[in-house]
Design brief:
This protein has helices at residues 12-15, 55-59, 67-82, 105-108, 110-118, 132-135, 139-151, 167-174, 183-186, 193-209, 221-229; strands at residues 3-4, 20-21, 26-34, 39-48, 92-96, 126-131, 155-161, 178-181, 212-215, 234-235, 244-245. It is an alpha/beta fold.
Length: 260
């Protein structure tokens, strides 16, 4: 059953924080690894139900009326969950967020900043992932949100890059710190000359502007080897580590083998 949650330090008239949101949440954490340095670059917080139920079961209860409160509630709860381990480790916390659920960053991120401070979580250790699909509807608003996040000291990542139709136009408009390749470009890249040619061009463009690339959804070692040959070293996927409920996998939990 949905519950009504009110955040007292947020202006309800602006951020609509008093609307119903899904029940208590938990989080699973999946590492994003830096294969070159054999370190964990970031941990992505993946929303789950109170007993570990799938993200789909939670997101199915999110609608236009409660998405503003839900987006904010997820950020706050993920920070609380991550603070037990990540604040003591030199890793980013990657939070998925919906830019179209944010009216004004300075106002709508007030509770997120307060939660980070309360949990001793450094702002420069937080990365916001924003999917390219959201930019299709309000590209100017999307670009404003990304720039505001960067100005506030957060790391910004353009998620599902190459899937939403905005592509290079959006990249030029927002210039994020990181792009996360859409899984469609990663899947079977080792047997697709076309995908490798496209990704080689993306790598060249991003290198020129200092934008790092994360390849997500890696499921077999051959994909990892092909991506490494292209110069990509930040990886995420079941091949390396599955998400872990209520905890963040460490370096020793990662499958680092991609040879042979």
């Amino acid at each position: 059953m949905a519950t009504s949650v009110v955040f007292p330090d947020c202006e309800e008239a602006v951020c609509r924080c008093a609307e119903p949101i899904p029940e208590r949440l938990s989080f699973a954490f999946q590492p994003i690894i830096d294969f070159k340095s054999r370190t964990i670059f970031a941990q992505e917080a993946l929303v789950r139900g109170p007993e570990g139920q799938s993200a789909g079961s939670v997101l199915s209860k999110v609608n236009a009326e409660n998405m503003h409160a839900f987006d904010r509630h997820c950020r706050i709860q993920a920070l609380k969950s991550a603070s037990r381990t990540l604040a003591r480790r030199d890793e980013l916390l990657s939070l998925n967020t919906m830019p179209n659920a944010v009216y004004d960053p300075a106002t709508c991120l007030r509770t997120t900043l307060a939660a980070a401070k309360a949990n001793g979580f450094p702002i420069n250790q937080i990365m916001f992932e924003m999917t390219e699909h959201e930019a299709v509807h309000e590209p100017d608003h999307f670009a404003m949100i990304v720039r505001s996040y960067k100005d506030m000291g957060f790391t910004t990542a353009l998620d599902d890059f190459g899937s939403g139709g905005a592509g290079l136009t959006l990249l030029a408009a927002v210039m994020p710190d990181i792009v996360k390749l859409d899984m469609g470009l990663v899947r079977n890249v080792h047997i697709s000359p076309v995908k490798r040619t496209i990704l080689a061009a993306v790598v060249e463009i991003c290198d020129k502007f200092g934008i790092r690339i994360i390849a997500e959804g890696i499921e077999v070692k051959a994909e990892a080897r092909a991506l490494l040959d292209l110069g990509i070293t930040l990886f995420q996927g079941y091949y390396f580590s599955k998400p872990q409920l209520n905890d963040a996998p460490g370096v020793d939990d990662i499958n680092w083998s991609i040879s042979g």
